Amino acid sequence: MARGRGSKPHAPTDSEVLEARSERAHQLMGRFLMDFWRLFAGHEVDFPYMDPDASALLRRGVAPFLASGARLRPDAGRTVPMELTLDDKDASKPAHVRLSIGDESKWEDAEGRTVRNAPRRLVVDLDLDGEITQILSVGMRVEAG
After folding, report:
1. CA pair distance 21, 65, nearest whole angstrom
2. Do 60 and 86 meet the contact criterion of CB atoms below 8 Å apart?
3. Neighbouring C-alpha atoms within 13 Å toward the C-beta of 12
4. What is the pTM of this model?
5. Distance of alpha carbon 123 from the chain centroid
6. Which residue of 37, 131, 137, 140 could cross-link 127, Cys pair, CB 3.0 to 4.6 Å?
7. Phi-psi category of 47—alpha, beta or left, where left has phi over 0 and alpha has psi -120 to 50?
8. Regarding beta strands 95-103 and 106-108, do their DSSP bridges make them parallel or antiparallel, or are they unpaired?
9. Structural domain tally of the chain?
10. In angstroms, rounded to a whole number, what is the distance separating the alpha carbons of residues 17 and 23?
11. What gap in Å lies between CA 78 and CA 67, rounded to an integer?
């Protein structure tokens, strides 16, 4: 931000603050989705941007699938634009994100056979800290597609 001689820096407008928070949320969701699919594909994923309890809950939810020997081949190209709820520009207030993802993934069973899922939609609800740097909780449901 350039300033002229003697001018004071301007405080960001509410719109600029909301735009910056929205951009951080989009970046965090992109990272989460990449790691989410990698987890289902059987890769080790750290989720350093998640609350440890939320990360543990997500891993426990995926564990039975992975323990069966199955591995997902993600095919989630149709992500509906995320719904982002920001109460206001106050970074002390959490944000909520809902992702709706069209999923036509295939998976391999323990014997290596490929199985195609019926088209479905994954709806993922995430609560973020006010600074939009950490995922505090994750919920997911599957809908027919």
Report:
1. 35
2. no
3. 11
4. 0.79
5. 11
6. 137
7. left
8. unpaired
9. 1
10. 10
11. 28
Is 3 part of any domain? no
| Helix, strand, coil content of the chain in percent (nearest 5) | 30, 30, 40
- How confident is the model over 26-76, as pLDDT tens digits? 899 889 988 998 998 889 999 999 999 999 999 998 999 889 888 888 765
Residue 96 near residue 132, CB atoms below 8 Å: no
Cβ(76)–Cβ(102) below 8 Å: yes
Q: How many whole angstroms separate alpha carbon 14 and alpha carbon 1?
A: 17
Q: What is the distance between the alpha carbons of residues 89 and 19, in angstroms, rounded to a whole number?
A: 9
What residue type is 143 in one-letter code? E
DSSP E strand stretches across 15-109: 71-73, 78-86, 95-103, 106-108
Q: In one letter, which amino acid is 35? A: D
CATH code of the domain in which 78 resides? 3.10.450.240
